[in-house]
Amino acid sequence: MYDLLILSSEQKKTIKLSFENIVVTQLNQIPNKKHKYYFDIWPYINNVRGILYKIYTKDGLGEFECCDELFDFGNDNNSDMQYSLFDGYKVNDTDSISLKPEYDKDFKTIINKLLEKSPINTLLFLCRGQCNDYETILGKLSKEEFFDKLDKGKIFTNTCYIIG
Fold first, then answer.
1. Are the C-beta atoms of 102 and 72 separated by less than 8 Å?
2. 3-class secondary structure, 100
3. CB within 10 Å: which end of the chain, N or C, has fewer?
4. Do 22 and 107 contact (CB within 8 A), yes or no?
5. Which among 106, 117, 75, 100 is positioned nearest to 151, based on CA atoms?
6. Do residues 20 and 106 lie in contact, with contact meaning Cβ atoms separated by under 8 Å?
């Protein structure tokens, strides 16, 4: 099971987003509150000011607030990821993800709206699975580059992407 966390950097006030099949939940109301979520595991996200959101589907594993239904998971060998990122890592801690077509429009709307609400037009994106937690952070990708990589299955779990 995977959690999808998106932090809207420097966002001051939470926004409510409503979609038919996707839930967007704010995990903190105060932008500079340090203990947002996974504080001990992913301190980088917690040390960036902003509003942290959790995204998951209403159906399937929605009761567990998991994002598993949003994505197709694949490419277990991670051949599209630079090998140097995996020095000392268990390669099976990451999987490539691509958005399922039925969620494409709403998910991209969420990303666009959260980018608009960030005064510095920057998001942190993390699809986190249960694994040995290594704080792997990649950035910065433009929104267009991120969407292109996501469409091609070249975004990976347990890796934080800076989008802006």
1. no
2. coil
3. N
4. yes
5. 100
6. yes
12-49 pLDDT, tens digit each: 998 899 898 999 988 887 766 655 566 666 777 777 88
Burial class (CB in 10 A: 0-12, 13-18, 19+), 123: buried
Q: How far apart are CA 124 and CA 152, in angstroms?
A: 20
The pTM of the full predicted model, rounded to 2 decimals, is 0.85
CB 90 within 8 A of CB 132: yes
Q: Identify each DSSP E strand in 10-145 by its residue range.
A: 22-26, 50-57, 71-74, 96-99, 123-129, 137-141
pLDDT score recorded for residue 161? 94
CA distance 153 to 97: 5
Helices (H), the chain: 43-47, 104-117, 143-151
